[in-house]
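Bench log, entry 3. Co-assembly request; chain sequences pasted below exactly as received.
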Amino acid sequence: MKSFCSARRQGMQCLGWAVVAIASLPLAATAHGAHVQARNTAAVEIQASYDTGEPMAAATVQVFAPDDPQTPVQSGLTDASGRFVFVPTTAGTWEVSVRQAGHGDIAAIPVEAGGLVASEFTNDAGLSWLQRGVVVGAVIWGCVGTALYFGRRGKQ
Amino acid sequence: MHIPDGLLPASVCVAGYAITGGVTWVALKQINKTSNPQVEVPKAALLAAAFFVGSSLSLPVPPVSVHLVLNGLLGIVLGWYAWPAILIGLLLQAILLGHGGVTTLGVHAVMMGIPALLAGQLFQQRQRLGKSLPPKVALGLFSFVAGALGVGISVLIFLALVVFAMPSTLDQSAERGFLTALMVGHIPLIFLEGIFAVLLCFFLLRVKPELLER
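Structure output for the full assembly:
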């Protein structure tokens, strides 16, 4: 009779420990369902292109938060149009590096509270074909002038 | 083939400036040894303009687009003067066109200037190395090889720099795939610049052969 009671007590103890063990498992491990929720947020879209106008498709993008310019908080690839979207979580200057085969650019984007790009920020549109033509023409003229100047001095 | 600011580590940019400083000193010393260093300046100025414009002329080689470099040609025609011409051309490209950056100027000078000097030295050896060949054949052969070698070595230095300085956070396989496409895209350019050098050398041989002798 005594041994029967002892075995029963041990059985109850085992059951107790099992209940404690299951209850102490992480909650996620006990979940069987998943839920996806949707909400609106303020995101920043960048678009990268070469100076020929061709989009930088599938270029590597790295996003750096204002407080850590060394470790990217988000990485990914641009789409076929050279676009990439990220969500800034704090206000400050976010740096976005876009690179492909040794070419690319780093943009410093000032973000205000609420995730909006600062109103004073303007995109660097690069040179238009007319501006490029004027610059190239000016440099050629400068070089020709240098050649003429030294050519004349050489003759003298 | 211009690396913008911020993509290379600071140590590489500093090393580029250090090498550029040393080579500039050697090149200016060599130029100063000539009896009248100013005689070659008009030629150097015109070819610096050609070098500057070359980077704006994109050639589509699907899936990439490449641009003329012309450093081998500058080395052939200018010799040591090619170095200051390329240095000034690169500075103007970085400041005025945004091709490359100011911090990577030294790296670019090494990448494009040293191959130009090598191409110039090779071209000057044509009479010694190619003495068994007819003079015109030697001129054609050495101008082609020197013209192609200039851009060819630049492409290899560019590849080595980008692979060496590639951050570990990048997708290495994707980046290597794009780099391979870019390198393959430069093969037609290497041949094109070689042919361009041959055409220019034969033109100069006909109109002003003394320009090919230094």
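Chain B has one domain: 10-212. Chain B touches chain A at residues 1-7, 36, 38-39, 41-43, 45-46, 48-49, 52-53, 56, 58, 64-65, 92, 96-99, 158, 161-162, 169-171, 174-175, 178-179, 181-182 (CB under 8 Å).
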